[in-house]
Amino acid sequence: MTHDQDAELARLRAQVAELSRPRRTVRSACAAVLLALVLVLTPLAVVAAWTASLLGDTDRYVATMSPLVEDKAVQAAVGTRAGHALTEHLDLNALLQQAAPEDRPLLARALGRLGTPIEGALASLVQREATAVVASSWFHTFWTDANRRAHTTMVKALTGEGGGAVKLTDDAVTLDLAPVIDQVKQRLVDRGVTIAAKIPEIHTDFTLLESHDVKRVETGFRLLQILGNWLAVIVVLLAALAVWLARRRRRALTAAAFAVAAGALVLGLLLVLARAFYLDKLPAGVSPDAAAAVFDQLTRFLRTAVRSVAVLGIAVGLGAWLSGPGRRAAQVRRLWSAGIDATRGAAQDIGLRPGPVGTFVHRRKRWLVWAVLAAGGLALALWSYPTGWVVVGLVLAVLFAVSVIEFLDPRPAGPPGPHPAGAAEDRNPPEDR
C-alpha cells in the first residue's frame, strides 16, 4: 500500500472508532445499570423464592416448624401461657363448692402434699402439669400434626384471608392453645383434681410472630407470593443482558456473578439486623428466647438460600475471572496445568497411557468441558433446595471432572490462555477484553 492509502486507511479507522464510541458508551452505561439492578433485585428474588416455597410446600413448612417442639424456650413459653390461662379460670372457692363431697378429701390430699398455701399449691400443680404436657410425646405429635393441618390456614392468614387455628390479628400471627389446655385439664383430673373437669373450654393464643407492621408485611408477602420464582428468572435474564451489552463480556460476567453474591450477602446482613430489631421491639410478656427460636426457624431455609446463592455467585465469578487473560488468572491456570502435567507424566512413567481414549478426549475436549459444565448446572437446577455445601460439592465435582479431561488429553498444556471452564469465549478483540 502507498503512503496515501495508509493515511486514508488510518483516517477511516479513526472515523469508524469515533462513530462507534457513543454507541459503545451507551451500551456500557446500560450494562452498568443492569448490573446495579441485579445487585438490588437479588435479595428480593431470594426472598420471593423462599416465600413461594413456604406457601407451596407443606412438607417444607412442617420441616421448618417441627424442630421448635424440641426447643426449651418454646416449651417453657407454651407451658407458661397454657398454665396461666388455666389458673386464671380456677376460682378455688367456687370450684370447691361445686366439687362432689367424695372428691373433696382427694383434692385436699393432692394439694396438701405440696406444703404451700392452697392457691399457690394449685397454681404450682397446674404449671407443673402444663410443663409435663409440652414435654410429652403427645405435644410433639400435636405440634407436627397441627402445623401440617394449619399450613393452608397459615397461607390464608399471611395472604390476608385469615381464619382457622392460625389467626392474623392487627399486630400478630397467633396459634390457639385450647387443645394443650384440654390436655392439662385431663392430667389434673388424673392426678385427683377432678374439679378441673368443670372448667369450661379455654381459648388462649400463643404468638408465633408479633409486630405492629403485620399488615404492611402482609402486603409485601402477597407481592412476593405473586412474583415467586419468576423474579429469580428476571434477575438471571438481566444479568445475561448486561453481559451481552458490555464491551468486556468476561469482565461483565464476573461482575454479574459477584453482584449476585453481594446481593445475597446483603440479604444475610439484613436478616441479622431484622432479628435484632424484632427482638428489641417485643411487647412485655413475650419470651425473647422463644421469639428468637421461632424467628430463627421461620428464616432457616431463607438463610440456607442466602448461603447457596452467595457460594454459587462467588464460584461463577471466580470461574469467569480465572478463564480470562489477566496475569494473576494466567498464573493460577499455569499452576493448575503444571500439576496435571506432572500427574500425567508420572502415570506415563509407570506405563499408564490414555490410548484411544486420549485421542477422543483431545478431539472433543471443548465439547466435553461444556458438557460437564452443563451437567453441573442441570444438577443444581434440579436439586430441591440446595444448601451452600451442596453448591460447593457440585463445584468441586465439576472441577474434578474438568481435571480428569485435562489429564486424559495426551497433548501437554500449551501457553496459558482463556480456559473453556469459565465463561464463554469472548468475541471482542483483545483490547476490548
Give a structural overview.
With 433 residues, the protein is mainly alpha-helical. The chain has helices at residues 3-56, 58-65, 72-87, 92-98, 104-112, 118-134, 137-158, 178-190, 214-227, 230-245, 249-280, 288-298, 300-322, 327-349, 356-363, 365-382, 388-408, and strands at residues 166-168, 172-176, 205-210. Among the domains are: 61-218, no CATH class; 321-432, no CATH class. Helix content is 72%, strand content 3%. A 3-stranded antiparallel β-sheet has the order 1-2-3.
How many helical elements? 17
SSE topology string: HHHHHHHEEHEHHHHHHHHH
Protein structure class: mainly alpha
| Range of helix content | over 70%
Inertia-based shape: elongated
Spatial ordering of strands, largest sheet: 1-2-3
Global mean pLDDT: 76
Number of strands: 3
Q: Biggest sheet, open or closed, and with what strands and sense?
A: 3 strands, antiparallel
Question: Low-confidence spans: pLDDT under 50, at least 5 residues?
Answer: 162-166, 413-433
Radius of gyration over all CA atoms, rounded: 33 Å
First-to-last CA distance: 30 Å
Report strand %: under 5%
Keywords: Membrane, Transmembrane, Transmembrane helix
Biased composition (Basic and acidic residues): 424-433
Protein name: Integral membrane protein
Transmembrane segments: 29-52, 226-246, 253-278, 305-324, 367-383, 389-408
Overview features:
433 residues; mainly alpha
Task: Describe the structure concisely for a colleague.
With 433 residues, the protein is mainly α. It has 17 helices and three strands.
